[in-house]
Amino acid sequence: MTGSRGGAALRLAALVFGFAFLYLPIAVLVAYSFNFSRLVTIWGGVSPRWYSALWQDDKYRAAALTSLEIGIMAASAALVIGTCAGLAMNRFVRFRGRALFGFMLMAPLVVPEVILGLSLLLLFVAAQSLTGWPASRGILTVTIAHATFTACFVAVLVRAQLAGFDRSLEEAALDLGARPLAVLWRITLPGISPALISGWLLAFTMSLDDLVVASFVSGPSATTLPMAVYSSVRIGVTPEINALATVFLAIVGAMVALAGWLMARQERRRLAAL
Amino acid sequence: MSGIGGWLRRGLIGLPFLWLAVFFLLPLAIVAAISLTESADTIPPFRPLFGMAAAGLQSHLTLANYRELAEGCLGAYANSLGNAALATLLCLAIGYPFAFAIARAPGLWRHLLLFMVMLPFWTSFLIRVYAWIALLQPSGLVNRLLLDAGIIAAPLPLLYNAFSVELGLVYSYLPFMILPLYGSLMRLEESLVEAAADLGAPPWRVFVGVILPLTLPGIAAGMLLVFIPAVGEFVIPDLLGGPNTLMVGKLLWQEFFDNVDWPAASAIAMALVAIVTLPLLVAQRLLARAAA
User: Which helix (H) or strand (E) element contains residue A21?
Assistant: First the structure.
């Protein structure tokens, strides 16, 4: 498998098979979203019918706005918490509770969502009966829950970028008498901005995507987009959902491409400046 | 920033530490407490662990939830562990050649291919799982193609069984396997591989003797990243599974939402925590070593 022609063919086969597996279901979904027929078995010709049905459906529009609001707030909170955590883990080699801190940062990345959802709900219920806060469950409780687990993903990205960060500029600024906070704000944070941008976007899309945690900690006042989608999907395949999924894919794809382009441009500029 | 102490240091550590202690650790302790109490027709639907009654301090401490779990729910745990373990192995079998091929692609291609692996991860999990329903159902695309080609006479039962759950798990968690594998394959010293080949080792020996041992940390990390969340998966067994494929995540969901038995759901969650704690600790050590 090292450079021989047989090896190259095997590697190509692995790529074709792997990407077919990852993308075929998505491609079929997108194709069906343009199908005129309600049934997936029948191809009734290309039609934007399900897109106009989706556009007129207030249920999904309200849910999308709720999800957007939660996503923006949760990602912003996660960015602050996760960046602090990433900086702390990278810069402070020794402090009391570092092992526990590392565990708390790692565990939410993989702990099953049902556990995160149930435990946070029980916390909110206990807090309400003891202190009266939160008065009701909804946008705020979902935002807190999302900020908690997405912050850990932000921390991973920030830490990874800090690991390859050249600290000579920081040291020079400190030697010249800059205050630590000014160094952090003017040098460190701009230097790790690619991680900050991708961290925020990752947190935002994860919040937008979450069904399980939101279902536990939300109340009747707030239905997120995945919750609305889930309640229709449970009944079976509906063409409107195919259209919604396609719109979602297009938006996320464009966002990720834009972020990639921005980061690549910044990287080129940084290299040009050096 | 190396020499900073004082309030900036305290803030950078303290804010995330406190946040995670309050919103991650404390909630787990509450789950543990509520798993030891009795359910009731009150709001919230459980008795307090300790309450004041006419007779004085009264406790509702009980192990009944765990007893019920041991008697009635072991099947769901066995299902979850089995499904997650098989999904982990299948992800490794599919992901290793995939990651290997990406790591060996020419420079610019490599970034594009890795981006294409990540892209589905950025899109809706729920929708990606749901997409399989249209493919697998009796009137779905796969059965239609097989019927039209004359390969089968009647639609195959591809949906709502162990097969579709397994497929959903492998499909959804494959990127989690590929990323750490790719990372360790990229760190692989190319000179070692070349040396082995130059000394006359056939390709399979180079792979088994050099490449495989050197990428073991990536293999282990990928396996844990797939196994731990897959054990507690809810969406996949719910949308693609049937009555015989109950997994712990769905069991917990049913106890909580359908039966409104919060203490039982808490006991299920605690048993799940117990299952994933050991792999979690191993994963933390591995990731800490990778970061160092």
Answer: helix A5-33
